[in-house]
Amino acid sequence: MLEEVFTAPKPGLVDRFDNGAHSDMDVRTFLLSTAAITPFLREMAELGYHYEGSAEKLFPLLRRSGGAAEQAMFRATGGVNTHKGAIFTLGLLSASAGRLRRSTAQLNAAEILSEAQKIAAPSMKAEFTRMRQLSKDSPELSHGERLFLLHGECGIRGEAAEGFPTLTRHAIPALRAALSAKLSPDAARLDTLLHILLYLNDTNILSRGSHRDLLWLREESRRILSLGGASSEAGMRALKQLNCDCIRKKLSPGGAADILAAALFLCALEHI
Ligand SMILES: CC(C)(COP(=O)(O)OP(=O)(O)OC[C@H]1O[C@@H](n2cnc3c(N)ncnc32)[C@H](O[C@H]2O[C@H](COP(=O)(O)OP(=O)(O)OP(=O)(O)O)[C@@H](O)[C@H]2O)[C@@H]1O)[C@@H](O)C(=O)NCCC(=O)NCCS
Ligand SMILES: Nc1ncnc2[nH]cnc12
Fold first, then answer.
1. Is the pLDDT of residue 269 over 90?
2. Ligand 1 within 6 A of 91 CB?
3. Which reaction does it catalyse (predicted)?
């Protein structure tokens, strides 16, 4: 989470250079949030390690811990939602890694993601059934719930139900390729973020903007990568301009930021 937030310049997102499209949070907010959340991620890893029941029966235990982590996040940030999605994704992956650690010394990203899908998929099916019963006009709907009811967007729940395909097919291969090519840490993370932006249906973009904004962001990401990405002068110039454009449009791909954090986490686990 800290490597993600310090990576810069990220389009529309909080980083060490600026607060992106946000007036309610900065790097300090993310530092406070990370400190508040981390103990719960450890708790979810330990739940995964010690729980001996079926994968799907583990999820409700994680949901309780994740809910407590959300409360700790809101207490630490004064009510700002910095990492609600990250708690879900990183919590699930931590539990999955803990569960696999019982039987293997060498953790592998693909196996962690596959186990995470076994843990989450049945509950996500029930979640989609629950969401279908919600009223489209309810003021209580979250961004994700509203997008699901209006447009069938599955968002973070869909990613978990499918075993995080954007992580598996795009984020992790891109990060590994960038690190093998000896890019700087910033450039490797920025190019990975651009690959995530190419494919992720980020409900933050869809709720703050529109589907047209999501397609625009995809095309800009593709163009920057074709210029050579963050390690080229032209690519970095275009990335800085994209950040300005996202700030002007008030667009912030928070989901993509979480998937970057998850890719960094999984690659780090493989080297333990
Ligand atoms: C499953 C839940 C976590 C879903 O809760 P909810 O319905 O409230 O969430 P959504 O509205 O669906 O948003 C989900 C957040 O997930 C990130 N995200 C978005 N799209 C994707 C995607 N395609 N794949 C993966 N992740 C995605 C994103 O989170 C990040 O952005 C937030 C910060 O940005 P900001 O723009 O400020 O966001 P908002 O404050 O919402 O916008 P404004 O109002 O300011 O405009 C931050 O959350 C980042 O993490 C989406 O926001 C929930 O139901 C649940 O189950 N929670 C508790 C259970 C749990 O955590 N269990 C533990 C492990 S199983
Ligand atoms: N760096 C960041 N900026 C804005 N929203 C985020 N959600 C997760 N990381 C974020």
1. yes
2. yes
3. 3'-dephospho-CoA + ATP = 2'-(5''-triphospho-alpha-D-ribosyl)-3'-dephospho-CoA + adenine
Task: Tell me what pLDDT residue 93 has.
Answer: 98
The Cα–Cα gap between 48 and 94 comes to 8
Mean pLDDT of the chain: 97
pLDDT band at 180 (very low <50, low <70, confident <90, very high): very high
Q: Tell me how far apart the alpha carbons of residues 46 and 216 are, in angstroms, rounded to a whole number.
A: 41
Q: Is the CB of 63 under 6 A from ligand 1?
A: yes
Closest CA to 263 of 184, 181, 165, 182: 165
Average pLDDT over residues 41-49: 98
Q: Which two tokens stand for residue 168?
A: 């598996």
Token output for 104: 């293997």
pTM for this entry: 0.98
Measured distance CA(92)–CA(73) in Å, rounded: 17
Selection from 195, 201, 197 nearest residue 170 by Cα? 195
Mutate to test the pocket of ligand 2, among 6, 15, 252, 264 (most ligand atoms within 8 A of CB): 252
Query: What single-letter amino acid sits at 78?
Result: G
- Neighbour tally for 150: CB within 10 Å: 11
Q: Name the pLDDT band for 41 (thresholds 50, 70, 90).
A: very high
Residue of minimum CA distance from atom 42 in ligand 1: 204
- Does residue 83 line the site of ligand 1, with CB under 6 A? yes
Count, residues in the chain: 272
Helices 185-199 and 172-180 cross at an angle (nearest 10°) of 150
